[in-house]
Amino acid sequence: MNNLFVITGGPGAGKTTLLNSLEAKGYKVIPEVARIIIRKEVERKGDALPWKNKELYTDKMITASIQDYKTVNKEQQTEICFFDRGTLDALCYAEMIGYTLAPEIIEKVRKCKYNSKVFILPPWKEIYTTDTERKQDWKEANDTYTYLKNMYERFGYEVVVVPIGTVDERKEFILNQIS
Fold first, then answer.
1. Dihedral, CA atoms, 48, 108, 105, 116, nearest 10 degrees?
2. Which residues of 71-110 are buried (b: 16+ CB within 10 A; e: fewer)?
3. What is the spatial distance between Cα 13 and Cα 41, in angstroms, rounded to a whole number?
4. Residues near 154 by beta carbon (within 8 Å), at least 6 away in sequence
5. How far apart (Å, rounded) are the C-alpha atoms in residues 10 and 21?
6. pLDDT 10s per residue in the chain (179 long)?
């Protein structure tokens, strides 16, 4: 899908801030499923959390990511849409934790096709923070970036590194890349 773009990267790289800026400019943005799952699980005292049951958390991320993709894909006409992480992010997480997924799950993820350009935000120590939902340390944030970059490249995407800069500079970089 030429109008479906993924913005990814390790935790704390500025993705959500950038996506909020794109949304404020009128673009459709699909929020990150991981944070939604964490909030719901914490609220209901569930186990599908990265610090409790990583496999169940991964399963929920994959299911929610595929559902978001299908929903947007079904309703999309020509509108540009940005995803805060794509289905491959959940697959990448499974690989990082050593969770082997069934081939049919990997095939479902593979069928979720985005624009061939995937935007990745590199680790940025000066803005990196942890919070109640983001508990990864700086090393894990860096490792996640590398895993994600490799994952998208393995699946045939052109990974475009978004330079460190102000939100507006990053936004303009992406908009110039897609125009």
1. -80
2. ebeeeeeeebbbbbbbbbbbbbbbebeeeebeeebeebbe
3. 24
4. none
5. 19
6. 589 999 999 887 899 899 999 999 999 999 999 889 988 999 999 999 888 999 999 999 999 999 999 999 887 667 899 999 999 999 999 999 999 999 999 999 999 999 999 999 998 777 656 555 555 676 777 888 999 999 999 999 999 999 999 999 999 999 999 98
The whole-angstrom separation of Cα 41 and Cα 37 is 6
Residue 127 φ then ψ, to 5°: -110, -5
Spell out the domains of the chain, with CATH numbers in brackets.
4-178 (3.40.50.300)
Q: How many residues does the chain have?
A: 179
Nearest to 8 by CA among 76, 74, 87, 78: 87
Beta strand residue intervals within the chain, DSSP E: 4-9, 28-30, 81-84, 117-121, 158-161
Q: How far apart are the first and last CA of the chain?
A: 15
